[in-house]
Amino acid sequence: MPFFVRHRVRKKVEEDVAAAGRRRVTVADLEESKKRQLQRLSEGVKGYTLETCFGESGCQNAVVISAAIVSRLEELLERADLLSILRTHWGEKLKLHHQFRVTLADCPNSCSQPQIKDIGIIGETEVTCDPEACTGCGECAAVCEESAVTLEDDRLMGIDYGSCVRCGACARVCPTEALKAGRGGYRVLVGGKLGRHPQLARELAGGLDADQVVALVSQIVELYKAHARKGERLGAVMNRIGWDDFRARVLSGSSS
Questions:
Q1: Roughly how many angstroms between the first and final C-alpha of the chain, as a whole number?
Q2: Which helix (H) or strand (E) holds 202?
Q3: CB 18 within 8 A of CB 29
Q4: What is the pLDDT of residues 8-30, one digit of tens each?
Q5: CA torsion sign, 148 to 151 to 154 to 155?
Q6: Distance of CA 87 to the CA centre of its chain
């Protein structure tokens, strides 16, 4: 447990003991505090979490505006009644960490950690290339962390789309629009998790619009509901079914 957490817990126990008119903390006090902490962990559990990054607050790196899709995903997850499914696995004493986790990042910097969630959605943008408009400033190559911008004699030649993560950074610094950010979209990752057997999420599909993302998430959730066993995160279900089979079922619209 990190020092600042231990300090906060200890201080809370000491405050409770002082409020009771006593000066000494006993083992019974510590046990009672632990019970209260566990009770709080069970409060507010709704079967899923839906997290976002800070893109909506004006982040300069955001390549999509995701407010509308977030609302649609929340409605979808609420209708899925994941709370009932989890209660069949865990009983009434659910904890926050048992919940199905979905997160959305408005750019490939992925501040909301989609790589370790059940479903991670990452915003991306298409970048178009017009070498004739290049002035040879080199700013695009300097800012590209993937070395995806190809220059020859300091002039723009093209983009290696196999290496490009579609963050749009090169387009933001280009002074002549030789590189230009186009249509925004999303890619969907699945199966990330921490815990005893951590693993990074795998990319399921990319180049998706909002409607396609919502439809895909719906299919993933239905497959999870149909196949999850007690204690399994989506990543464990995916591993048990096998990646190729899992991917084929989701993309074909079959949860059986």
A1: 41
A2: strand 202-208
A3: no
A4: 556 777 777 777 778 787 877 77
A5: negative
A6: 24
* H or E segment and range at residue 187: strand 179-190
For the chain, domains (ranges, CATH) are 1-43 (no CATH), 46-125+184-252 (3.30.413.10), 126-183 (3.30.70.20)
Nearest to 107 by CA among 152, 153, 166, 164: 166
Q: Pick from 113, 164, 171, 99: which is nearest to 139 by CA?
A: 171
Residue 112, φ and ψ in degrees, nearest 5: -90, 10
Q: For the residues 235-244, what does the mean pLDDT come to?
A: 96
**Cβ proximity of 18 and 46 under 8 Å:** no
pTM of the model: 0.81
Residue that is written with structure tokens 């439809």 in the block: 215
Structure tokens at 166: 């579609």
Return the half-sphere exposure (C-beta side, CA atoms, 13 A cut-off) of residue 97: 6
Query: Which pair of tokens denotes residue 98?
Result: 């048992």
pLDDT digit string, tens, across residues 71-95: 999 999 999 999 988 888 887 777 7
The answer to whether 222 touches 254, Cβ cutoff 8 Å, is no
- The DSSP string of 126-137 is EEEE-GGG----
Question: For the chain, what's the residue count?
Answer: 256
> Helix, strand, coil shares of the chain as percentages rounded to 5?
45, 20, 35
- Residue 205's region, left for phi above 0, alpha for psi from -120 to 50, else beta, is beta
